[in-house]
Amino acid sequence: MTNPQLQQMIQSVDQFLASYPTLCQYDRLREFEKKTGQPKAYAFFAIVALLSSIIYALGGAKLISDLFAFAYPAYMSFKAIDSPDKADDVQWLTYWVVFAKFSIVESVMNFLVSWIPFYFAIKCAFFAWMYHPKFMGASIVYKQVIKPFVMPHLQAFEQTKSQKKEE
Questions:
Q1: What are the angstrom distances between the C-alpha of 10 and each of 22, 41, 56, 102?
Q2: Which residue in 41, 73, 136, 156 could disulfide with 10, CB within 3.0 to 4.6 Å?
Q3: How many other β-carbons are positioned within 10 Å of the β-carbon of residue 78?
Q4: If we measure between CA atoms, which residue out of 163, 81, 79, 91 comes closest to residue 134?
Q5: Is 95 left (phi over 0), alpha (psi -120 to 50) or beta?
Q6: Alpha-carbon separation of residue 143 from 14, 76, 100, 150 (angstroms)
Q7: 97 Cβ contact list (under 8 Å, min separation 6)
Q8: For residue 39, how many other CB atoms are within 10 A of its CB?
Q9: What distance in Å separates the CA atoms of residue 72 and residue 147, rounded to the nearest whole number?
């Protein structure tokens, strides 16, 4: 354990675990460390690897990529609901519109998924770009892809709806 990079990684994981003691079961990991003499980070890595293996066995790469695209945005959406700031509401509503559109297209074009190398890794990278606060890719996809396609149809629908009310 003389590798300085390994030590730095263990310290980073310990800081993360201490930041979320309930979620990470910090007390139990501390007991593990006392009993075995091994860093808490090792047990944490083992637990994450075990859970990832179980999730992969249950649903494969699709389930992992779907959880990746859903979990963090859902958490941030719950936070946005309670925040007074409307900008985060717009960001997460936009994300969910793009997410829904992507999910529909993915289910229709499912036969292509097996032909695209590293599809699920690419999907995870795409969704990370969409929800990362630095990039806000969902708003770019919405403004440049979805809005130009949907708005003309939505306006036509609204006109038809208003004409029906007048009759």
A1: 19, 6, 25, 37
A2: 41
A3: 10
A4: 91
A5: alpha
A6: 41, 21, 15, 10
A7: 138, 142, 146
A8: 20
A9: 24
Question: Which token pair is 6?
Answer: 């390994």
Rounded to two decimals, the pTM is 0.78
The residue type at 132 = H
Structure tokens at 30: 């501390």
